[in-house]
Amino acid sequence: MRKVISQGILLLIIAVFGIQIFYYAVNIPFGDDFDAVLNFLNEWIVSDNFTQRLALLFSQHNEHKILLVRLFVLIDYYLFGSVNFVHLILIGNLFLLGSIAIIFRIANSNETQWNAFDWMVLIPIAFFVLSIQSHETLLWGMASIQNIGVIFFTFLTFFVLLKGPLNSYRFIVGMFSAFIAIYSSGNGFLCLPVIMVMFIFRKEKLNYNLLWILFSIVVLYSYFHNYHSHPGHPDPKYTLFNEPDKLIAHLFILLGNSWAIYKYEMLISIVVGVVVLLLTFYLISRNTIAKQPLKFAYLSFLFLSCCVTSLSRAGFGADQALSLRYRIYSLLILVFLYLVIFEFINDDRRKFRFVIVVIAVSFINHFVSIWNFQGSMRDHKRKLMHGLAAFNENNRYFYLSYPEESRARMILTNSYQLGVYNYKPGYLEFASKKVKVDPAPTDNIDYDFGFEDYDDLIIIDNGWAYIDGFNTENNQTYIVLKSDSLELTFDTYWHVRPDVTAAKGGHNLDRSGLTCLIPKSQIPDGKYRIGVLIKKSRRLRSDIQAFELTNKFVVRSGDNFQFPVDALNEIQFTSGESSHYIDSKVVVNDTLEIRGWVVIRGTTSDKIRKELNLVSTTGEVMKVAPRIESRPDVSNALVGSYSGSGFVAKIPIALLNDQEYEIDLLLEYFSEKRIIKTGDRILLNK
User: Fold this and answer.
1) What angle do CA 220, 216, 333 make, to 5 degrees?
2) Using CA atoms in the order 625, 626, 632, 633, what is the torsion angle rounded to 10 degrees?
3) Calpha distance 171→196 (Å, rounded)
């Protein structure tokens, strides 16, 4: 009976994990997907000779050569006619299940028969490894294949070469597996010295040792031929010799970053990291390499991976080690420490008690992970959906998840044109949701937003809202459309608005920014008053709900949409009402930077949405959403609440032509818009 229960628990853990991956995976590029997947395919398609394509397969991406990722990208493209990022995510997670299968295999010393207790021993392994703490990697197309693929093929290399007697067949398979591990991610190299040490310890035949050394030299040469360091990353030598404190702190955090606890996260990770390191040294002193050589090899690889990661990333700061993408290593270290300690316990009763304790601890860790990270996985999916929908509607804010949005836009446009990526989602994700709204407005929400009318969507972008007297942590904001007979509620995606915090003072309002995409197909004909609903979750305390009806309306009549405001609050623009000044317009690092300020007399600046338009001599208009800058000097000079009047707009000059541009400012307050002709011009000659 115990055996059946243990097997049932294992299947349940795998099923829950799989359901979460299927639900949150989305066929939209994220981060390095733009370059490593889409741009690679764009270049592959336009390349017409074998040499160029071979060079592309082995070309460097950041510090790595990601042959494994590119092979699966090509397989997916040629099988389905276009790349699908959900397929890549599933492939990466299959590698995780493969890694667990290898761990399961080495966890049981009895290779011929599995009893009830053997199955019970596997439960903590599943709880730790199939934790969604690693969801940043698990839900990321190229990263899931790269970061989990290297673990799987390294584990496979150790299993083939170190479990049981070595023969020629095992040696060839091991070399192939090691080659794939190395060309999955850079830390795959670590399997080379670990295997060499284990061969010497096991006193393998001389020819295997010599062949492994030759193989290592050839692979090292092929990998580092024409290799270049990544300019955006810290110098490991500088970190090692000049910032050892950062390096040590980063390593301890990385080793202990396996607990899904937000409060005191860094302190807890350091403490756990120190305990893990001390425990490892103690187990080494118990002659682990002789008694459990295979598990020792796995632990060595995981520890060395953490050391290399800290050496290359500590320059960013110790807190960078808290990144979710690295947690798989911290969790795997716990798994192998658990297995090593288990083998050192001789008494069966003590073994049973030890396993029960570890099952309880791993269950708590697993459950807390699900509890804590559902929101961030939901935000991740919503952000990607909003970004691609805004891109497809040619919205000026793309929110594509890549550091350089202009480059992401260019890559994505080329991918659509070449047909390597053709996913254009419908708008069901943004459909009206049934959310309970209290009938009586609480009138305690401060907000500002406007509507933008597109072909299929109404977009509220770059707006903000918060509950007076509270911070914006754990807020979920909805836009409500209320008519006499119908109520529609639409979810929003939050984005950072530190300018709101700076302007309002008091509480942290950085998460007050909001974007809402409303499908026109969801709005029947009629007049709707706009409301703002905010639900604030508070652990161990009752939640807060606030609702306020605004003075904004949406009116639909057939295909015509209008956005009137209450006449009592309507602002009528008159001549002389605004003041502005362009402080500078310069080109820095291939980017045109325009800095200045603009105010409407008598109106608080943070109530005004600003847009900068570059109008060419041929009539083309480049619309730019500037970043808000604090300008207390303007407030002092004009005597008013104008500290939020400053702006700075940055435009890559690659997006502009060699001609003269006139600088215009578009101001919006409620639904009124006004263009200010600044009279300033800039002549580009690249």
Assistant:
1) 95
2) -120
3) 13
Residue 167, amino acid: N
Of 62, 463, 88, nearest to 232 by C-alpha is: 62
The residue assigned the tokens 């002549």 is 683
Contact residues for 168 (Cβ-Cβ < 8 A; gap 6+):
none
Which pair of structure tokens corresponds to residue 479? 């836009």
Percent of the chain, pLDDT > 70?
92
Q: Give 282: exposed, middle or buried? Use CB within 10 Å, 0-12, 13-18, 19+.
A: exposed
- β-bridge mates for residue 615, sequence order: 621, 662
Please write down the long-range contacts of 568-576, taking CB distance under 8 Å and 24 or more positions apart: 569/670, 570/670, 570/672, 571/600, 571/603, 571/669, 571/670, 571/672, 572/672, 573/600, 573/672, 573/674, 576/601
Compare 565 and 528 and report the one with higher pLDDT: 528
* DSSP structure class, residue 642: -
Please state, as a whole number, how many other Cβ atoms lie within 10 Å of the Cβ of residue 653. 14
Q: Distance between CA 103 and CA 119 in Å, rounded? A: 12
Q: How far apart are CA 563 and CA 580, in angstroms?
A: 27
Q: Which of 511, 509, 554 is nearest to 531 (CA)?
A: 554
pLDDT tens, 518-562?
999 889 999 999 999 999 886 656 678 898 888 888 999 888 888
User: Amino acid identity of 255?
Assistant: L
At a CB cut-off of 8 Å and minimum separation 6, what does 275 contact?
Answer: 256
Contact 162, 198 (CB under 8 A): yes
Query: Which pLDDT band holds residue 571 (cuts at 50, 70, 90)?
Result: very low
* CB under 8 A, 24+ apart: contacts of 568-577: 569/670, 570/670, 570/672, 571/600, 571/603, 571/669, 571/670, 571/672, 572/672, 573/600, 573/672, 573/674, 576/601, 577/601
Query: How far is it, in rounded angstroms, from Cα 627 to Cα 648?
Result: 5
Taking the C-alpha atoms of residue 252 and residue 268, their distance in angstroms, rounded to an integer, is: 10
Place of tokens 């350089």: 404
Q: How far apart are CA 95 and CA 149, in angstroms?
A: 6
Least confident of 33-37, 137-141, 165-169, 681-685: 681-685
d(CA 148, CA 603): 54
- Looking at residue 35, the DSSP 8-state letter turns out to be I
Q: Is residue 590 a contact partner of residue 654, using CB atoms and an 8 Å limit?
A: yes
> How far is residue 649's CA from residue 629's CA, in Å, rounded to a whole number?
10
Q: Residues near 170 by Cβ (< 8 Å), separated by ≥ 6? A: 160, 161, 164
| HSE of 439, CA atoms in CB hemisphere, 13 A | 2
**Who's near 247: CB < 8 A, 6+ residues apart?**
239, 240, 310, 311, 314
Question: Which of 111-115's residues contact partners 24+ apart within 8 Å by CB, and which partners?
Answer: 115/3
Dihedral through CA 364, CA 367, CA 369, CA 372, nearest 10? -110
Strands 627-629 and 646-652: antiparallel
Whole-number Å distance between alpha carbons of 236 and 230: 11
Helix (H, G, I), strand (E, B) or coil at 621: strand
pLDDT at position 162, please?
93
- Report the distance separating Cα 153 and Cα 519, nearest Å: 45
Q: How far apart are CA 658 and CA 654, in angstroms?
A: 10
- Judge contact between 553 and 564, C-beta under 8 A: yes
User: From the centroid of its chain, how far is CA 483?
Assistant: 38
Q: Closest by alpha carbon to 379, among 510, 476, 517?
A: 476
d(C-alpha 145, C-alpha 143), whole Å: 5
For residue 437, give the nearest of 501, 407, 481 by alpha carbon. Answer: 481
